[in-house]
Amino acid sequence: MAIITIKNLHKAYGDKTILRSINATVEEGDVIALLGPSGTGKSTLLRGLNMLDRPTSGEVIFEGQDITQASESELDKIRQDMGMVFQSFNLFPNMSVIENVKIALVKVKGVADAEATQTAEKFLTKVGLADKATAYPASLSGGQQQRVAIARALAMNPKIMLFDEPTSALDPEMVGEVLKTMRELAQEGMTMLVVTHEMGFAREVASKIWFMADGDMAQYDDPEAFFEHPDSERAQSFLAKML
Amino acid sequence: MQKWVTKIMAAVMTMMMLVGMVAPASAAQTDPVLSKIEKSGKLVVGTSADYAPYEFHTTVNGKDKIVGFDISVANEIAKRLGVKLVIQEMSFDALLGAVKTGKVDMVVAGMTATPEREQEASFSEPYFVDKNVVMTLKKNANKLTNLNDLKKATLAAQLSSIQEDAAKQVDAKKVVSLKKVNDAVTQLTQDKVDGVVVPDTTADSYLGESTQFAVAKAALPGETNGSSVVMAKNATVLQSKVNNILEKHVIGAPLDKWRDEAVALMNHKESFFEKYYPYFVKGTINTVGLAVIGVFFGIVLGILLALMKLSSVKPLKWFAVAYIEAVRGVPLLIQVFIVYFGTQVIGLNVSSFMAGAIAMFLNSAAYVAEIIRSGIQAVPAGQTEAARSLGFTKMQTMRYMVLPQAIKNILPALGNEFVTVIKEGSVVSVIGVGELTFQTSVVQGASFKPFIPLIISAAIYFILTFGISRLLGRFEKKMQQSDRKLI
């Protein structure tokens, strides 16, 4: 079943076209690695899916609704179902780890405090950081912060998780722990769309590859096909640089 | 055309005649000011209590009081009108404005009628006549022996006073106009001016207090000046009543007695500190109180203005921008006067402390708004994105994520604003708010020591501002440490 259908999505900043005309579908349970050279619009596409960055034209159909036409208050509801993890973690520095995870539950979903605390603890345990509940983000390593950010998004019980280069800002020794968490998530059947430069992760974990270059996108339903026999010159030269 | 002009003129003249016929009949009974006094049971008298022995502060049984023979006159008028006397203090140059706008019912402040002043307000018969003299330092007394010497001298006088006019009339080399007589005397003791033009009653007081002063031999030309009670133009009935009271119950023996009493009170010796420390304490409390009120409400309004300025709703944005620019572009002193007299014009009767506090926070809000705006803009965009991606609304994001971080970032700047407000609060002394600067001039006036009170209040201001800066510095360090401890 399709969770998200993207139709003729176009995005331009002034004269500069970022997304030409993207068409794609995310099926339930898909783990999609969104690959491509820097500056080709991968993040723009991702942020266009939850309207953090509204597309110029085209449709994003989420659960049967074209959300490019949704009002701000409708979007506030829709975004609860689309978890997002950022390159720079974006934890709230004025709140402890557990507060970071539970605040949206309490203030957005209206969950009772005790229940929210329980949920938050569950997800912190899941990402292996139950012992850091009372710490503040500034005292955590980058890898730990990113895992808290993943727990924060998961706590809202989203239907899809969007990852925007989740490991790009991390020191090399921290990358593994975050990828491990994401791998576990994929194994549990979470629908995921991951912008990444981690080729190993894409090859092993992803069920599909989306390859973007210059605002266009090619879809590969079999990752092996992309890595072994890339059919475009751009994909070939990209892989040659990355592998 | 000429026809209807004639018609209009005829109509106007008829109207005037009608009014002329009706007005005296009703005016004989009462007038707006008198009926207000009778209705409230209070006579509000404005004065500038830094002018011994006319009116000045003193400590009676440990309590601060405004005394002087002008106050006795005001008391007598209130008694004869059958109402309670309320004294409202402000600087001398604010008095005429206050009586005109109805802030006070009358002014009893040793004020002399001049043609300019009589355009603004009505004056009673003079109840006390005093001549102007040039007070100088004893060592310079021989240098000012005739009118020619005065022409070559630099003279000081109180701003907007009759003495200022006198100094200008002798064509002195330079006339220095100051808000307070104390300030003029200070300039004299510092050799900044050669003489100060004062009524001889005042000169006598200074001479009695210190041997360094003398009255110059050179006499000022022109007549003596009489002190009158000043009322609003429309207070016609009140004016005749006051004249009557002055004539029957003030001028002559009663006034002589009050004057002697005032001089006795003035020369009542006590140690400086014992006598005047309550003024400094009271002034400090009021100064800090004003600053706290000013900054607290300034922050509340400042947040609102900052959000409006950052808003995408154009009219809100324009309003905030206009407000901030206007307030930052106009001196605080002017704003204080606008609030003080403006509230009266629109029919609100607020105390001078309230008016001062309102002016302070309206002013502070503009500066705080800019501080908060910069604080909000310094919060990384990622914070907003993260919050919005979790489903927080714009308002919630502002409330739970952006503002708490912004305020933490701008605490040092807000602390500086608090220090600034403490210092700038001195401006509201002009409308008679009893804060530190005001109390300082009260002590100057009452003690005839122009300089020492200044040093004391400077020290208090410094302790306040430096203390707060240090406290904030510590607080900031502590916050940094707690951040570091976690890393």
Gist?
Chain A is of the alpha/beta class and 243 residues long. Chain A is built from 9 helices and 10 strands. In chain A, α3 packs across α4.
Mean pLDDT of chain A: 93
Outline of chain A? globular
**Sheet with most strands of chain B:** 6 strands, mixed
CATH architecture classification of the largest domain in chain B: Orthogonal Bundle
* Number of contiguous helices of chain B: 19
Low-confidence stretches of chain B: 19-27
N- to C-terminal separation of chain B? Answer: 91 Å
CATH topology of the largest domain in chain B: MetI-like fold
Order of helices and strands of chain A: EEEHEEHEHHHEHEHEEHH
Task: Tell me how many strands of chain A there are.
Answer: 10
Instruction: Indicate the overall shape of chain B.
Output: globular
Supply the CATH class of the largest domain in chain B.
Answer: Mainly Alpha
The biggest beta sheet of chain A is recorded as: 6 strands, mixed
**Mean pLDDT over all positions of chain B:** 85
Molecular structure report:
The complex is a heterodimer of chains A (about 240) and B (about 475). By secondary structure, chain A is of the alpha/beta class. Chain A has a domain at about 90-155. Chain A has helices spanning about 40-50, 70-80, 95-105, 115-125, 140-155, 170-185, 200-205, 225-230, 235-240; strands at about 1-15, 15-25, 30-35, 55-60, 65, 80-85, 160-165, 190-195, 210-215, 215-220. Chain A contains nine helices and ten strands. In chain A, a hairpin with a 2-residue loop joins strand 9 and strand 10. Chain B is of the alpha/beta class and about 475 residues long. Chain B is built from 19 helices and 14 strands. Chain B has helices spanning about 1-25, 30-40, 70-80, 90-100, 115-120, 145-150, 160-170, 180-190, 200-210, 235-250, 255-265, 270-310, 315-330, 330-345, 350-380, 380-390, 395-425, 435-445, 450-485; strands at about 40-45, 50, 55-60, 65, 85-90, 105-110, 120-125, 130, 130-135, 155-160, 175-180, 195-200, 215, 225-230. In chain B, strand 2 and strand 3 (about 55-60) form a beta hairpin. The N and C termini of chain B lie far apart (about 90 Å). Chains A and B meet through helix 2, strand 6, helix 3 and helix 5 of A and helix 16 and helix 17 of B. Chain A: It holds the Pfam family ABC_tran. Chain A: GO terms for molecular function: ABC-type amino acid transporter activity; ATP binding; ATP hydrolysis activity. Chain A: Belongs to the ABC transporter superfamily. Chain A: It is a peripheral membrane protein.
